[in-house]
Design goal:
Layout lengths: L5 E6 L8 H14 L3 E10 L1 H12 L7 E5 L6 E9 H10 L4 H16 L7 H16 L4
Parallel strand pairs: 1-2, 2-4
Antiparallel strand pairs: 3-4
């Protein structure tokens, strides 16, 4: 059996992720499509306040966000990283986007992974590409 390389944690939230095995398989599929492999990827689900403090401490940003991705990779094509996701933001964004919490969470899971494969989202063009990649990633789900 393959050793797990994708881990899920929580900080300052009671959120329980469902379908972990299916999500791991799906995330590995996304990475492979981008010609990457995952050495170690940690997803940490947290509250708005927890992620706001991280945003202040590490990025010097004083606003809420749904995700912060830290790239710890040392070798090109081999993903190592920590992705912090605010469950509060995901729930709010799902309502704003007229989406389900599950779909919005999956979009954000893919978004963080795509950052680790080199995609950015600062410019309008980058945001459009990121959204297209997120949509393509969501279409790969088999669950």
């Amino acid at each position: 059996m393959k050793e797990e390389t994708i881990f899920f944690f929580k900080e300052d939230t009671q959120y329980q992720l469902r379908q972990r095995a299916e999500i791991r398989t799906w995330l590995n599929t996304i990475a492979k499509k981008e010609k990457y492999s995952i050495l170690e990827l940690n997803y940490i689900f947290c509250s708005d306040e927890y992620l706001l403090q991280m945003n202040r401490d590490f990025l010097d940003h004083d606003y809420y966000t749904d995700i912060i991705t830290f790239d710890n990779s040392e070798v090109k094509g081999k993903i190592e990283g920590d992705i912090f996701i605010s469950i509060d933001r995901v729930k709010d964004n799902a309502q704003l986007q007229h989406s389900t919490v599950k779909d919005e969470l999956h979009r954000v899971l893919a978004h963080g992974l795509l950052h680790l494969t080199g995609y950015k989202d600062k410019t309008t063009k980058e945001k459009e590409m990121m959204r297209a990649k997120e949509d393509a990633s969501l279409s790969l789900r088999k669950f």
